[in-house]
Amino acid sequence: MCHALLRDASFWRFLQLIDHDLAEQESAGGCPACGAPLHRADYPRKPRGVPRALFGPDGVRRLSFCCARDGCRRRMTPSSVRFLGRRVFAGAVVVLACALAQGLSERHRQRLCERIGVGLRTLERWRRWWRRDFAASAPWAAIRARLATPVEEQALPRGLLERWGEAFSATSVVGLLRLLAPLSRSVRARG
């Protein structure tokens, strides 16, 4: 069921539309450093875990902006639901692989990894990230504060996916990716 979601071109087009909306909203205020207008400065990405054809011709570009004022030239990369920070795998792959792996034996985790195209060590690193790094992060503290009933760190990310109903539906995955989108944002000086 979730494998079908990862192979659904309309799902990836929808995530791209969300990314464009986020980029418009975040760039409307201009450069975070000086307030000057921003120019588009998209760059290519090679997301793993999903056939590139599903992203469409413009879908493998990371939306980004650069300050138009000479002397500043600060880059602003807005939030994204397609890319989870600097990870090379698409965000939905990271979320779904970790959620599916919860409670599986090592043999079944290995089969899951083969099916999705992720190494077992990579999957285990992602799972540690959810339990340690993400569970200790400010975004998780903000998300946790908004939950009526708590989600245990050991139940991440599946516990969050289940908040939207069926854990592996497009609605739940998009909902969680929207919560995680600020983790993909970066603002840094060029130099």
Structural account:
The chain has eight helices and six strands; from the N terminus they run ααβββββααααααβ. The model is unreliable at 187-191 (pLDDT under 50). The protein starts with a helix and ends with a strand. It has helices spanning 2-6, 9-27, 91-101, 106-116, 120-133, 138-146, 158-161, 170-180, and strands spanning 38-40, 43-44, 61-62, 65-67, 75-77, 186-188. Helix 3 (91-101) packs across helix 5 (120-133). Strands 1-4-5-6 form a four-stranded antiparallel β-sheet, with no helix packed on it. Strands 2-3 form a two-stranded antiparallel ribbon. By secondary structure, the protein is of the alpha+beta class.
| Number of spatially distinct domains | 1
Poorly predicted parts: 187-191
**What spatial form do the alpha-carbon principal axes imply?**
globular
Strand content: 5-15%
The helix fraction, in percent, is 40-55%
What is the straight-line distance between the termini? 45 Å
Number of strands: 6
Order of helices and strands: HHEEEEEHHHHHHE
Major beta-sheet overview: 4 strands, antiparallel
Q: What structural class do helix, strand and pairing data support?
A: alpha+beta
Global Rg: 17 Å
Give the arrangement of secondary structure elements.
Elements: H1 2-6, H2 9-27, E1 38-40, E2 43-44, E3 61-62, E4 65-67, E5 75-77, H3 91-101, H4 106-116, H5 120-133, H6 138-146, H7 158-161, H8 170-180, E6 186-188
Helix pairs in contact: 3-4, 3-5, 3-8
